[in-house]
Amino acid sequence: MSQPEKIDRALCELNQEILDLRHSPEYQFGVKVSKLIYAIKHLQFRTLLISFEHKKVIRKLSKGHKANIEFLTFDGSIETNTRIAVYTCITGYYDKLLEPVYVPENVDFYIITDMAINLSSAWKKIDINTVEEVHGFDNTRKARYMKTHPHVFFKDYEYSIWVDSNIRVVGDLSKFIKCVGKTVPFASNWHPDRNSIYAEVEACISRKKDDPDLLRKQIDNYKKVGMPEDFGLIETNMIVRKHMEKCCIELMELWWGELMQWSKRDQLSLPYVIWKSGYTMRDFGFIGNEIRHNPSVQVVLHESKYRAPTR
Q1: What is this structure's pTM?
Q2: Strand ranges (DSSP E) for 79-155?
Q3: Residue 243 — φ and ψ, nearest 5°?
Q4: Among 23, 86, 192, 255, which has the minimal tally of Cβ within 10 Å of its Cβ?
Q5: How far apart are CA 125 and CA 21, in angstroms?
Q6: Can you say how many angstroms the Cα of residue 102 is from the centroid of all Cα atoms in its chain?
Q7: How many CB atoms lie within 10 A of CB 108?
């Protein structure tokens, strides 16, 4: 076992202990009790009711869910000879920047942002204000453009790995490039709770993730052209791509087109684009079906209350 593999294994084993604790019944019960006490203390009874109703909807949508895809297995060996760009995007101080725990020699970390970045950060800054294509967009669509266009920003890299801004990188993500699909060099996680964009749109409406009228128009349009019911659903908070491949670029541009025309909920439009392009989910690679259980990363709550530091 090489030294990078030893480091990765040690970090992932340590993180796995933390994940096991966080997902234990005792810990989850404590979290629920703490939230309940806080809501009662601050008289947030309407919030409690909304949360209860939303959970009822989610349980109903998740009933009988089962991934209908085989997840790729990989030996965990570390790729040291391929240049890889790991990147994310934060605009409007929506999140705090999470520093990676480990920085492999062949992996560069990029943050596309309008924030000031500490000089000691492992993240290299790309100033979002210099990206003319997103001028005038809201912050969410700015981030969506970055997510769908690694071929614009990282032409000197063979692979790129997108991580949402609430994901801390713990281990060496280079091992996941072995997971990309053979037909389309793309890998992500299967959605842990739902298998259909028709269930996903109901979850988005329940959680008020976007304009419900727009969401319904979008899904009605997809249904009208024949989008299958249980085609599959991808969790898009981590995406591994051989991004300069022609088929990957074409797919990402089509995905971006849907995000511009319809809702900014990207998990809703990606399966449609895959189906419309003549692919099935088996043409893609899948790392697993729950990123929150992946010991190479930590998923934290979005720090939406974070604001720019005052002078």
Answers
A1: 0.90
A2: 84-90, 107-113, 123-127
A3: -75, -15
A4: 23
A5: 34
A6: 20
A7: 19
Instruction: Name the token pair of 8.
Output: 């990765």
Confirm if 186 and 248 have CB atoms less than 8 A apart. yes
Counting Cα atoms < 13 Å in the Cβ hemisphere of 220 gives 6
Return the pLDDT at 161. 98
What values do phi and psi take at 19, rounded to 5? -65, -40
CA distance 145 to 260: 9
Indicate the helix (H) or strand (E) that contains 249: helix 246-261
CA–CA separation, 107 and 122 (whole Å):
11
What is the radius of gyration, based on Cα positions, of the chain?
A: 20
Separation of alpha carbons 311 and 305, rounded Å: 18
For the residues 134-147, what does the mean pLDDT come to? 96
For residue 210, how many C-alpha atoms fall within 13 Å in the half-sphere facing its CB? 22
- Write down the residue that tokens 């128009």 correspond to: 217
Q: Which DSSP state fits 128? A: G
Residue bearing tokens 């998990």: 267
Strands (E), the chain: 84-90, 107-113, 123-127, 159-163, 167-169, 186-190, 234-241, 285-288, 297-299
Residues constituting the chain: 311
Mean of the pLDDT values across residues 189-211? 92
Residue for token digits 């684009």? 273
Q: Which two tokens stand for residue 11?
A: 């970090």
Q: Average pLDDT of 118-131?
A: 96
pLDDT of 58 above 70: no
The whole-number average pLDDT for the span 155-180 is 96
24-44 pLDDT tens trace: 999 989 988 887 887 787 777
pLDDT of residue 66: 58
Structural domains for the chain: 1-311 (3.90.550.10)
Q: What is the DSSP letter of 8?
A: H
